[in-house]
Design goal:
Helix content is 45%, strand content 10%. With 469 residues, it is mainly alpha-helical. Among the domains are: 84-168, Glutamyl-tRNA Synthetase, Domain 3 (Glutamyl-tRNA Synthetase, domain 3); 372-467, Arc Repressor Mutant, subunit A (Orthogonal Bundle), CATH 1.10.10. It has a 3-stranded parallel β-sheet. A 3-stranded antiparallel β-sheet has the order 4-5-8. The relative contact order is 0.09. The structure holds glutamic acid. Glutamic acid (GLU) binds at residues 8-10, 42, 180, 194, 198. Glutamic acid binds next to loops.
Amino acid sequence: MTVRVRFAPSPTGMFHVGGARSALQNWIYAKQQGGVFVLRVEDTDAARNKPEWTEGILSALDWIGISRGSYEGPYFQSQNAGEHRAAAARLYESGRAYYCDCTREDVQARTGSQHQGYDGYHRDLGLGPGEGRALRFRTPDEGATVVVDLIRGEPTFENRLIEDFVIARGDGSPVFLLANVVDDMTMGITHVIRAEEHLPNTPKQQLLWDALGVKPPVWAHVPVVVNEKRQKLSKRRDKVALEAYRDEGYLAGAMRNYLMLLGWAPSGDREIVPWSVIEDEFRLEEVNPSPAFFDEKKLRAFNGEYIRALPVAEFIDACQPWLTGTGTIAPPPWQPEEFDADAFAAVAPLAQTRIAVLSEIVPNVDFLFLAASTIDEAAWTKTMKDGSADLLDAAVAAFEALESWDAESLKSTLEAVGAERGLKLGKTQAPVRVAVTGRTIGLPLFESLEVLGRERTLTRMRAARLRLV
Ligand code: GLU
């Protein structure tokens, strides 16, 4: 039997990191089993659907390494509506489902409770189809539904505790539970690997598989992803959109490595490992069923390591969207013609060891490409003290006299200027850095000045000096 798994996102306008994790787990499982990965877009909620959202899913998957053309699909749930309706009709005709026209208020009036489920009132009243009548599944009164779950063992649900749930609404449209089962069935899905949030649906869905006469799939409910307060990651509260991480300059390699560590770890106490090791060693059965903490700080640290591990040329390439304003990323603060690839290449190795996400390249190198540095006023006030004017005057004079404009000479020259005033290099550097880059922190100063060049450096230092009059 060929293993067939699917990833079945609902388009919601962004791609949740938890979804990306499930997609990767499906992807690896299919690969390991010599199986097929199917992408199905669950787009039946027509009111909440936009074509660009589907495009967003495809491009997010592509970014994370599940590239277009390398899987089956995308299929669209909405295109299978006929099958969903036919299955509902089959369940009705075989007596496994019945019509009911109770409103929620009717049920509450009878049961006296807001919380209990449906009381089975219409089970045997023989109501036929009709406008406003929902179709309910007749759950067995006895026995239990045993779900075979690769991660959770055999969660067992007593059938008498499962209410007669709705499978088609009053307007005849099948609900998610049924559509999802019918699609899995028609697409020959053998393993359903999805988020734990769906576990409460699983016994109901398995009953539907049974009632439709098809062997249910093997399930694997991967752990819910939580924030530092152990709350389920939510798009209102947490940064959950994969696209947001991508646009901030997380590397796809770091992201997918990190996502795979949610509930699982490679051998030998390692966390940062090549993707091939993960593909090799990952075992769905070993995934820890407890909630998985999505630790943004750790992800950031991971990303920094991945950035440092890049060959410099790749690092330079990877920074391009932030430097040249391509793609969906915010344009840089300088004009495109001011960008100087050679100057960037000269400082890139210095920047590479200092940034954790690629977007941080901009504040580190903008001084090279802006006509004048943008002075951060807080940095200015903090740094420019009594004596800064004198220091800048002396530094300008000393730099003007330099024969060779290189980091070494710049450093020893400024060191001497400071020493004459009883200042250590750190204190001497600070006003020069703010004058030239506008900031108190950044790349090593003397290398920066070397790349910026004599003329621009001196112009900026003189301008800063004038401000101090
Ligand atoms: N469309 C569902 C969701 O995005 C997935 C259902 C499933 O994986 O079975 O939550």
